[in-house]
Each structure stands twice: as C-alpha cells, then as structure tokens.
Specification:
With 250 residues, the protein is an alpha/beta fold. The protein has a single domain (8-191, 218-243), classed as Rossmann fold (3-Layer(aba) Sandwich), CATH 3.40.50.720. It is built from nine helices and seven strands. Strands 3-2-1-4-5-6-7 form a seven-stranded parallel beta sheet, with helices on both faces. Helix 1 (17-28) crosses helix 9 (218-229), helix 3 (68-82) runs parallel beside helix 4 and helix 7 crosses helix 8 (201-208).
Length: 250
Amino acid sequence: MKSLLNKTALVTGGNRGIGRGIVLALAAVGANVAFTYNSNEAQAQLLREELAAKGATALSLKMASEKRADVLQVLEKTKQAFGPVDILVNNAAIAQEKSFETITDDDWNRMMDVNLRGPFTCAQEVLPGMLKLGWGRIVNISSIGGQWGGFNQVHYAASKAGLLNLTRSLAKIYSDRGITSNAVSPGLVATEMSAKELESEEGKDKITGIPMGRIGMVREIADIVVFLASDKASYITGQTINANGGMYFD
C-alpha cells in the first residue's frame, strides 16, 4: 500500500547508513524523496540509480545542513521538482570519539552546528510550507547517547539531547496546526558511523549488555520513520520512540 503517495519527503544525510534506509523505505510507500549528501556524490548517484530501478522518484542534493543558504537552495530545488516538503527527516549528523578532556572548542562547535543547528534550520525553513498546507511531519533522528549520556562522545550526546528537546518544543508549538514532531532514538545500529565504536572495548561491552542480544538493523529504524510520517501516527507527537533492543528504558 502506497501510504505516502504524492507526499514530498526531505531526508538529510540520506545517502548512507540509517538515512539511506529511510530514503528507500519512504520511496517504497510512494513518497517523492529528496535526500541530501555532504560530499560523496558517487554514493548518492548509486542510490538514485537503485531507486530508479525500482520505479521510485528521487532527487539528490548536496547540502551542509548547518548552512541556511544551502537549506534554502535545497528546499527550492525540491519544491521545483516535487512541490513543498510535507515530511522532514533530520538525519544528517556527525560523531567523534574523544575523551572529554581532549574535546576542543572547535570540536564542540562543529558537533552542535551539524547535529543541532542543522535540524533547527531545516525545521524552521520547512514550517511555513507545512503551516500553509495544514499538514506536516517532522522526524528527528536522535540517539540513545542523548538519553543516557556519552563516555567518549560527550559533545555528541549533548547535541542529541538537545535534539530531543527541540522535538518536544516543536510539538508543543505546532501540533494544533496539523504538524507532528517526533524523534527516533536508536541504540547500536549496524552502520558505517557506528563501526568504530563497535570495534572498541566499550562498544563490545555495550553489545553484550543488549537484552535482545544483537545490534539493530537499518530497516528497523526506517520502518519507524515511515510509520511516524504516515496518517497512522496522526495522534502521536512530541514523543521519542526508542529503538534500542532494550538497552535503555524510558
């Protein structure tokens, strides 16, 4: 069933990992999908080709989500191709393994720019169109680190905690206008970004402590995003959906 037929979705950081899975899942249910990438155009091209082979409509655009000029350009190109954005998935993020005492001001600022200011900027710029339509879905991809803190990723954890609060704030302000705002908070998921952590002793210890006995799969996160973007989730807003195999209960 094409539950999102004729809807336009924008997925930031959509060319790899969880973002790639979200792009594929949204396209599979009929959405016209625009996705952004930061530098790897070849990887984005491969995803476009994969979607085209499946008969899906997609657009890939280079964007630094923390740069408002980039965001505005992407939204204009998306509007020209598909119409205004109905569904925003803020997925683009960076991670960095560093002990707390070695995090520099530049490290901190870069983390907040990409992981928190980026979603803020994207949400702020898509909202006028959503308000005009009286319908919209904002889904922010956070992390279990934003809930229980970080050990070698304190700045990453802080940025993801901020994203959870941004999610709730948007829900309080705009839910009565037909726009829901929710977050998905994955635990350990098999992606390129998590590979380094999973190779560390701390990462291996985390895996042994997962009640389900395994790490998550990208498709399991993507399916939650599709649900939150659909009318089936029309009465869900301001929530954080934990997909962590039981690592953290809230």
